[in-house]
Fold these 2 entries.
Entry 1:
Amino acid sequence: MDKGFGDTFDRFTKRTGIKWLIITITGWFDVNCGCEYRRKLLNKWFPYKQKNKMNRKITLEDILDPVSPGVFFKEYWNKKHLIIRRNKFKNLFTWQDFNHYLNQYPDIKALQILNYRLDGDGRWCLDKVRKGKLKLPFLKKDEVYKLWNEGKSIILPFAEYQKKELVEICHEFERYFEKGQSNIYCSPRANSKSFPAHADQTENFLFHTEGKVKWTIYKEFAPDKPKEILEETILEAGDLLYIPQYQYHKVDTIGPRILISIHFSNKPKQSLSDFKVTKLGDTGRKKWYNWIPERYFDKKGKKIEQSYRMKSNTWKDRYFRDKI
Ligand SMILES: [Fe+2]
């Protein structure tokens, strides 16, 4: 894509053969044709507007920024955890989004409450209670609110379609991995229950969007047991953490937080020597549609105000004259 008029001019001279002529003539007289200097200068003087970043599809470069995908796969994938401290994707799921989601309870797809009971895995799962798989009472909205205020953590599973950017991230990851899932972990305060040291069977990408959490990463991978701590650190909104499959890890809540886990299995027989990347659009995941009727937003994403109110103050006289 042309960055400015210099690039367009350069393409024009190449296509018409003028460039070849200039180079040949200047070559005869051993003079620099100045093409490159002119191209850069014209680009600087007459730059083209770059496409709005928000309209761009999210790429793996954007997700792992500033670590390149090449470095990620060669040095970290399946080998060691990676912490990227930065200020990105904080709007993937905010407290406002959480507020909106929970206020729709019980008309929501799924919800889990951690540390609800002592037996089993301790969770209360909305979908399992609804289907009768879990013989637990169906909680009322005020009861869920009470549990949250008592300090219980809440998980929103299958959250991929909560935000356009979240689906785009899944779409992009699923070119490199199998179809994934996104869970959103929310805690109201410090010392809310989280998971003890464990290893997952999936590649985990953890996007921090609100508050801070303390992470403990262990040296061991399953089926070994977690023994030696490799790193203890606090991550905050905007940071990304990658944990390879089977590596042990633990989260401690140190205050209110929202953390999005996006996790995937590896493609069968995926290896660096035979690395398969699926074409965008061929991953099988349903796309995100824009349901907003046309002409509600301009090209820059700004809302177009459509007012049908009468502008003058005399409308009242005209409107009420016959009715009073
Ligand atoms: Fe985990």
Entry 2:
Amino acid sequence: MSNILIIDDERAIRKTLSEILTYEGFKVEEAADGEEGWKLFNDKNYDVVLCDIKMPKLDGLEFLTKASEKNADVPVIMISGHGTIETAVDAVKRGAYDYVAKPPDLNRLLITIRNALDRNKLSKETRVLKRKVNRVQEMIGDSEPIQRIKETIEKVAPTEARVLITGENGVGKELVARWIHEKSNRATAPLVEERNTCRRKSDCSHQ
Ligand SMILES: Nc1ncnc2c1ncn2[C@@H]1O[C@H](COP(=O)(O)OP(=O)(O)OP(=O)(O)O)[C@@H](O)[C@H]1O
Ligand SMILES: [Mg+2]
């Protein structure tokens, strides 16, 4: 079930949207201003945010900026009043997924939400696929030393231990490092490579 956050200071708009979206099978939460919306956005995971533009405390554009800095994946749909269509267009240029005018046309709103959810799903799938495509190359060999290396990788990768990998040029130190990352609890986070950090030039084969 998809989670939708509605941020609008007009109670009537919140209620209407919330009723319709709940009826359509979405899980809906409401916030009465940008600040409350921002708190909820920080605490929970939403699939789509509907956000008014003119609001007390934190307005729609400020919310959009903060939200896309934190998590650019969640589509934000602006709800625009009479005087704020231009601002809504501006918001879309700044990364909002789309905007709907007040009072919301319900069919258009539902189409916009479904499209936003689809885009979100696609970008998640793309990320998973990219990870699969970039999978670490298999470690070839089943000699005793290679088996020992594989066992050691299995043992140390899930721990917080620091690992020093030594060996002559081209023996596969980087491959071992990639496998340790792949089997670690941080496998979904990037592997950060630092180069040329040797303290003494005479110890270093990087230049
Ligand atoms: N056991 C292995 N199975 C498959 N490929 C391997 C194996 N060992 C090394 N390779 C391949 O050999 C090449 C060199 O390995 P790698 O870059 O990991 O070595 P390195 O020890 O980091 O080298 P350098 O000292 O030059 O930094 C890579 O293409 C790596 O994938
Ligand atoms: Mg290397």
